[in-house]
TrEMBL record:
Originating organism: Acidithiobacillus ferrivorans
Gene name in the database record: ygbT
Gene Ontology terms, MF aspect: DNA binding; DNA endonuclease activity; hydrolase activity; metal ion binding
Pfam families listed in its UniProt record: Cas_Cas1 (PF01867)
Family the entry assigns: Belongs to the CRISPR-associated endonuclease Cas1 family.
Name of protein: CRISPR-associated endonuclease Cas1
Cofactors demanded by this protein: Mg(2+); Mn(2+)
Highest taxon of the lineage: Bacteria
GO annotation (BP), single: maintenance of CRISPR repeat elements
Binding site residues for Mn(2+): E149, H211, D224
EC code: 3.1.-.-
Keywords: Antiviral defense, DNA-binding, Endonuclease, Hydrolase, Magnesium, Manganese, Metal-binding, Nuclease
Quaternary assembly: Homodimer, forms a heterotetramer with a Cas2 homodimer.
Length: 286
């Protein structure tokens, strides 16, 4: 099985069927030909089948209108490919599969860090150092570090908006302005490959260090270390130049995929996860 760090980041599909074609899942798209009357049993259709390279894919995102067979799901799990069921354009994740690789030893190490106040604070400081690029102030609790993070995040959003000439009234997921929409789409793709990396390494996405109480708490922790130097600046750039484009979601997804390859983001995520949780090359270290 190919290590997660050597895989393609993600593939997003919508309005199609996924069935097995021999030993490989196939994307099946069916398009009507011509303008035959409704209910005409002789209506011709074009069927296109495209192989999905699950053995080289970290994350397969299934959007609205997609159906997948049980055999195809089993094939993805056996290949170590995480399957996510998402909303339109991948903006929201409703459910996630399990790509295999779960390690009892790794999850025990993760739980030990979460339950030990000193180890959890040390891990949180590593996260914030990765995120902000500087050592956090000494003698601060996790709650105090969260407050510093909130100020830093608001300032960073404002700086990026000013840099790209985007009108900015704050980060609100329900707002429909191009910048907020682009950021939601971009961060969703980042969350997808982050969850894939976490599961592939044998950790639990639910056991967060700074974030708690969510099934993807650790996903948010790890993604936060990278998003303000990867997908968020990219989202502002696209919103500034192509914010009125009808295919904004597609543009953001394609740009994120190119960025993930260019920056070798899966490699970097693996390094960060191992550094923060303290496991190197599968061996537990203190």
């Amino acid at each position: 099985m190919l290590p997660v760090s050597g895989r393609i980041s993600f593939l997003m599909v919508e309005h199609c069927k996924i069935r097995m074609g021999g030993s490989v899942p196939m994307r099946i798209d069916i398009s009507p030909v011509g303008c035959a009357p409704e209910g005409d049993g002789n209506k011709e259709e074009i069927v296109r089948e495209t192989p999905i390279p699950i053995d080289r894919l970290a994350c397969l995102m299934l959007g609205p209108g997609t159906s997948i067979s049980q055999d195809a799901i089993k094939s993805c799990a056996d290949a170590g490919c995480l399957v996510l069921w998402t909303g339109e354009h991948g903006v929201r994740v409703y459910s996630a599969g399990q790509p295999g690789g779960a390690s009892g030893a790794h999850i025990l190490r993760q739980a030990e860090i979460v339950l030990d106040p000193q180890k959890r604070l040390l891990a949180a400081r590593r996260l914030y150092q990765r995120m902000m690029g500087a050592e956090p102030p000494e003698r601060r609790s996790i709650e105090q570090l969260r407050g510093l993070e909130g100020v830093w995040v608001r300032n960073r959003y404002a700086e990026l908006a000013k840099l790209h000439g985007v009108n900015w009234n704050g980060r609100y997921q329900k707002l429909s302005d191009p910048a907020n929409r682009a950021i939601s789409m971009a961060t969703s793709t980042l969350y997808g490959i982050t969850e894939a990396a976490i599961l592939a390494l044998g950790y639990s996405p639910a056991l967060g260090i700074v974030h708690t109480g969510d099934a993807r708490s650790l996903v948010f922790d790890m993604a936060d270390t990278l998003k303000f130097r990867t997908v968020v600046p990219l989202a502002f750039e696209i919103a500034a130049s192509r914010g009125d484009d009808k295919d904004l979601a597609g543009m953001v997804r394609r740009a994120c995929r190119d960025l993930f390859v260019k920056e070798k983001l899966l490699d970097l995520l693996v390094d960060i996860i191992q550094e923060v949780i303290g496991a190197v090359d599968g061996n537990l270290v203190d």
